[in-house]
Amino acid sequence: MTSSGRTRLATGYAQPGAPRQPAFRALGLRLRPQAPLIVASTVLLTITVLSLLIPMDVHLASLLVAVPALTATLYSALVTIHMTVLACAGAVAVDVHDGLGHSPILPIHVLDLLVVCGLVLVFWHMRDSDRKTLRAVRSVAETAQRALLRPLPCRVGCVDMATAYRSAVAHARIGGDLYAAERVDGAVRLLIGDVRGKGLAAVDDAATVLGAFREAAHRDRFLKGVAIALEASVARHFGEVGERDAHAAERFVTALVVEIPDNLPVVRVISCGHPQPMLARGHDVDLLDLTHPAPPLGVASPGQDYRVDTFRFEVGDILLLHTDGLLEARDSAGVFYPALDRFSSLSKSGGPDQVIERLLDDLTAYAGGQLEDDVALVAVRRRCADARSAERQLGAPTAATRGRRGPAAARGGVPHSRRDEEAARREPA
Hints:
This protein is an alpha+beta fold. 46% of the residues lie in helices and 16% in strands.
């Protein structure tokens, strides 16, 4: 990292006088809803006073139609009516001062104000109906989003977790990026993925992958069985949508399938064409060298052999899973975000939630406040060496000891020894 980059990171992109910005921003947010009323009142007062000061042969009363028009963005029709009444009173006062009290111009000015007020009220009613409809649609969408991309627990088994998702689409909480975690007997299994494309098609593909993972994580004893199940589900899904989508053959999903055993200081990873995770240990941060990556889900050949890469994952280590939105963000000069350097600097203190928050804020600032692609982040820290340690720390049984038991548990759970681990690697696809 260059010296300028280090300075930029250390200062958090702050400008001189930055401490005052939050106060000014808060004041601006409080005044913004009242801005139309303030402007309309200023216009009414200014035109009325000027009309009383300038020569009587210059008539400004017709300009008062701006008063009800400026209130069109207000959230209250009653305020618009009140401002129109005041504007009518101002027009009468100005016309009387100009000697037009008995002229047909006075009722025309008043009629103009009433017509504009009526049009504003009609517009306000239409906008209010649209706003209510939008709120209802957003409520349904947010419920669906929460059901699909469920929040992960902050502590499960022997690990602490934190997640963050930033969609490139305004008002959207999910898109083509996805993550999930499932507690199985003796381990925590995680998934992070990125669907090619955007829009409803990407959400549909993400829902397929998440549903398949949540089922396979509890059903399959070995991690490669989970990857095989994901590929089968995605291939079947793409085959079905191919009947109505001519571009279905171009769709795929990159993914990482991760397993963290309770009683072994390791993390097991299967890569399906996904960016490499990062591991912070003390002051060292490295990319995990995934030596046997498989093709993305949906494009793998029949009988694909999924290989498991195993890495040390000890107490205090932080594992960062991410989508390519972290790597492809650019600054104003078009330079890619230096994710590894940033993670190295930001992961030296604090828990996963603090690391994630700092990293996402830094990424957003680097990109100038607007991300061009969705970003999903999952940070995982091992906090104890085994499940019994977790139970002693909390003083009560934890998810590690009372985890859900399914078919995987009935067959003995995930491998807990070197012999089982080697067996998992030799298991035929």
